[in-house]
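Model the whole thing, not chain by chain.
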Amino acid sequence: MYGRLPIAKMLAATLAMTAAISAVMVSINWDGQEASTAAPKIDDLLNVMIVLSSFVFSLVVVMLFYALWKFKAKPGDESDGEPIHGNTRLEVAWTVIPTIIVLFGAGYSWSVLSDIEKPADNPLTVDVFSQQYAWSFGYPGKDNVWSQGELHVPLNRQVQFKMHSQDVIHSFWVPEWRIKKDNVPGITTTAIVTPDKLGAYQLICTELCGFGHASMRAKVVVETPADFRKWVGGLTEKVPAPLAESVVQDTETNPVPVGSGGA
Amino acid sequence: MVAAIKRPGWIRGALGALLGAAFGFALVVALRKASGLPAYQTEQTGYPQVVVPLISGPLGFLLGFGCFDYWLRWAAGMPTIPEDHSQHGAKSWKDYFRFNTDHKVIGIQYICTTFFFFFIGGLMAMLIRAELAQPGTQIVDAATYNSLFSTHAVLMIFVFVIPVFAGIANYVLPLMIGAPDMAFPRLNALSFWMLPLAGLLFIGSFLAPGGAFDAGWTGYAPLSTGAPLGQSFFNLGVQFAGASSIATALNFLVTIITMRAPGMTFWRMPLLVWANLSTSLLVVAATPFIAGVQFMVLFDRAMHTNFFQFAGGGDVVSYQHIFWFYSHPAVYIMMLPGFGIISEVISTHARKPIFGYRLMALALIGIVVLSYSVWAHHMFVAGMFSWLRVPMMITTLLIAVPTGIKIFSWLGTLYFGKIHTYSTAMLFALAFIVTFTIGGISGVMLGMVPIDIHVSDTYFIVAHIHFVLFGGSVFTIFAGIYHWFPKITGRMYDEKLGRVHFWGTLFGTWVTFIPMHWVGMDGMPRRVADYATQFGEWNLLISCGAFILGAVQLVFLYNMIVSWRFGPRATANPWRAKSIEWLVSSPPPIFNFDEIPRVVGGPYEFGVPGARHAIMAGESVEAEAPAPTAVGTP
């Protein structure tokens, strides 16, 4: 029965279409500049997914258009198609093969996730404070100095952000770093990043927090350790008492497993 | 005048609403006075003198309108008429504005009401896209913008997509299984009349001090617990929409389980019936969660409970767990009935039995089971326990498998068929396969934690949700409306206008929602009234696509209205389909069947010589032939 279908040609068309779509889509840098050690790993995963997705999409399109071309009823033809009710082998195939593909995707994602969240030795801890509609940052290792609206971090050193919100949920996103984490009132959330490109970036609030949501931004600067030391040394204000209190009071939901990674 | 007040209907309904609201208002004022409090409370989140009448007023309307008359009469020991059909059928258009227990009338009431809200929600989308066409603020300020996208989403989800499927199934499903009506006709009517109340509460929130609710359709605490009064309108509107949905789902379950015609075994049910069975299972078990969580928010707002108040020991993240425990199954509530529609349309117009019918039904059940175990994929960056992410990722990716089975089975159904594309319904069904595949692919990507960390809460999410809800659900809704239009109205629609609508919708969908993926990955967050100038050109294109998409829906509206009035008469079975609703006249007689039909075979026996799905009363038995139902043998 299926011998009547040009399976080899359809498969060739699917692969050709997959190659064409992938070639265009993988060459485009969708996520923008990569400025952390996590970014290329996430982008690689995305590219693998683009290729797999192109295959699935091409398969569906080729199957659909071949059927429309080959099995379209002639005008005036009122007869029925062939009474095929199914094919167990085919049905098992399109249950099992997608299962294998998605489990591969899950395994790959899991390994990327553990990789990008692996704690390093001697990270720099930065407290992130958010409130409608402003960001500020505390440096507990540096006399708890406080910076408003501007975040500085040194190059090539892992930063552990400890996040606190004073009112509603906000979300910390630096697209070039590919990290995002909600700042939730009452709990401490953690995000890990190792910036590996000098430059100025933007911190964007991505959780709806009220009418000022769209403008809740902060400047992010990645600089050399020497410049960073100089900048931190120039900060005079200390983290104000209510913010410092939230650091103590907020529940730590996701403690970073000490010594599980680089230690 | 007195007679008009005594008779159930609009006058008594309006009176009931007024009395109900007055009672609620008086109750609040009296209780507050008795407790030594000032009569009114106008704290931002409180307003009990408004919130309580918002509950008692709609209930008063339902009472006055006649939704409870029969039950109250029975409870009071007054004489009731067991076989009273005075509220059955529709003789003029006015009967559609009455309490009516006929499933066909209720189906039409549902479809027209939900499309009314579809067009209002669509207008809001047009305003949103007009504002976003250029960076900066042009048309609405940021606060109004937040209200607009919140109301847009809530109208589309709660009073369009979910109930329009209930409307289509209300009309078609009893006919399909050979039942004279739904199992509980009076409950069915009550379910419908709660729906416009929910829609009015959502829209009415624009009149509240502080404006309409603006915390998104997700209403995350504590933004929602501290929001102005409009948020309470949302909390209550969800109760009416949810109650309507739950009651309808119970009704479908009982109808499907107990009222199938003789011979209609489970494995002879059309897939639309299977789809509504699965959907109803989801609704009855999941919808109480969103009803509950919105009450918890309302209690936090009005009674100073501390469910989600971190300062009072509440837990902020638990709102999201409860909310998504409903709202992820809800995306399947919004999709499974559409899967059913697509199966009917494709099988009919490809003149082929559904490929792998049993696996198709099992895939629906598989989705039902899995959909309860994936909710936290909405919360990968929400600060929940991080170990929860990987198991939720695996279940999320696995749910793509039953969904993929459905896509491949529809494609398999086309092979060796005789595909007819003259019907707009079939065009929407075929286009659905491609657009929904794209939505599914982006869904798999979102299921992967590392990718999700980058793109969650960006326009990538907006693109994904619209590809599955518009390119998915709404395409299936259009397919269903075109497919059953002749059956419901007894008229044919204009295929030329249908084609204009189809191609415009397909083009508009792609132009609007494809670029949203790109700006999202490149750094544009969602739910923003303003954005960085670098995204200006793409957003202008997106807005142009959206305006095309909006404008072409007017062609649909025109086609539906004019064809309903003036279209050529439809025959009983214009698509030469097999299921039972096509074996009765268009529109069907008032009680569907003179005698219940007898089901003798599977629902899609195209091309099987002599095979029949059902035999109507009065047909000769010689027409019956042994129906081969072999599954799995090509």
